[in-house]
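Notes from hallway chat w/ T.B., transcribed later so I don't forget. T.B. wanted the structure written out for a chain they're using in a teaching module, and asked if we could keep both sequence and structure tokens in one place. Agreed to drop them here.
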Amino acid sequence: MLSLEEKLAIVASFPELQRKDVSLGRINFHYEDSVYDKKNVVYHLHPNGNGFVYAEFIKGYATDNKGLVNIRDFSAEELRSVIAKSIASLTGKASPKVAEPRSTEEVEEQWLDEEGHQLTVTFVEDLWYIYAGENLDCAFETYEEVEEYMNEEGFAKKL
């Protein structure tokens, strides 16, 4: 189980989230640009490591009646993934725009820049993830957004 400090570091890596301290030492993180009334992405992150992420609109998570999934035993990668998906689900962008991988070979791609740095692009469920080593760099809903980001950052797809 990740400590509170580790979870806070992961959540703080999402600049679009705003921290809100609440009672009993718990912490919420809001996504103010949500197109829905719901703004909590991380809910009641507790000093004991327990907490929740809003996942009502995300496939593959068992949520409670408030649409929350318990993140107490999530790994760092799982936590980053569910937070990225939660934020994306609150943007109101239609899911049909999500680019599906065209074949199993395209599920994972390597991209290089001129200095030899390598990023890995993967498609999992309904999002495209960009990793620098084991660290999640960012997530996108469409492959077109991935290509735009990579081009802006000076990366080219390794053939």
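Follow-up for T.B.: Helices lie at 4-12, 76-89, 143-152. Might be a good example for the class.
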